[in-house]
Amino acid sequence: MVKKSWVPYFFLSPYILFYLAFGLIPILFSFYVSLTSWDGISSRTFVGLDNYKFLFNQDSYFLLSVGNTLLFVVLTLPLQIIFGLIIASLLYSRWVKWKGFFQLVNFLPYIVTPVAVGLMFNLLFDWQAGFVNKLLLHLGLVDEAVYWLGDPLYARMVIVLMLFWKGFGYTMIFYLAGLANIPKDLNEAAQVDGASFLRIFMSITLPLLKPVTVFIVITGIIGGFQLLEEPMMLLGGSGMGSSAAVIGGPDRCCLTTVWNMYDTAYGSTTRYGLGAAIAYGLCVIIAVFSFIGARFYRGEQQ
Asked: Would you say 247 and 255 are in contact if contact means Cβ atoms under 8 Å apart?
């Protein structure tokens, strides 16, 4: 038998050490913290599964934050898919010139940092000095400034608009790649048979783009559950007034799961144990959606 060489393990050792120090050990430690009551200063008290049981209590805001996050995903993701597909189809067609320029313009919002996006929309929809209110007043569409970020319905509408503006370029890029992989012979054969553009799009393009759509849905759900900076900066920026004191906006209507975890562990309460439990609850939710999506995607590939 040939003796195994230690050289590969020597070159892998930096990655293994970094993963142990900054990956595996923090994961295991955070799980232990989720089983304790700890404020980061005093000694830790083992409480078992009490933190996980408390997640289903109304005072933890966990179920509320999960519901808010799901609402944003359900409202935003279909808009991103529809609009991204339309833009991708137009850019892929032969009628549009300067395709590279329009691809860049539509994709730029996606690479803007979340903090900058949140602050920008905060300035746009500010109650007193926001551009949107000034425009509406100038056009005579409203009699007084609308408190966009102080009303639960309007605040959610602003977040959906913000997430849609930021994310549709992501779907556009993937649909462009999917369109490029569709054999042109299929479209040409359909045109020869007299099929209209709409018929070709519905019968050939959409079915062949189904794996791309499934991938976008899976990654969109996972990314949606990690939502934090955009609503935090939007509702915590300048011009918020007294509503900024309420974490998650008015009536906590915009409190996302990660925001709830952050505020619980590092905000006003400093409850590391409960914050870690929220993080693991979120991990389970993402794992379930990822498992379902992976099974569905594998079924589409077969």
From this structure: yes
CA angle 263, 267, 272 (to 5 degrees): 75
CATH for 42-169+210-301 (3.10.310.10, 3.40.50.360, 1.10.3720.10, 1.10.260.40): 1.10.3720.10
The tens digit of pLDDT for each residue in 174-214 reads 999 999 888 888 877 888 888 788 888 888 888 889 889 98
Its pTM surpasses 0.70: yes
Packing angle, helices 99-111 and 62-92, rounded to 10: 170
Contact 197, 109 (CB under 8 A): no
**189: its two tokens:** 């054969």
Radius of gyration of the chain (CA): 24
Residues 6+ away with beta carbon under 8 Å from 280: 30, 31, 34, 52
Separation between Cα atoms, residue 271 and residue 205, nearest integer Å? 51
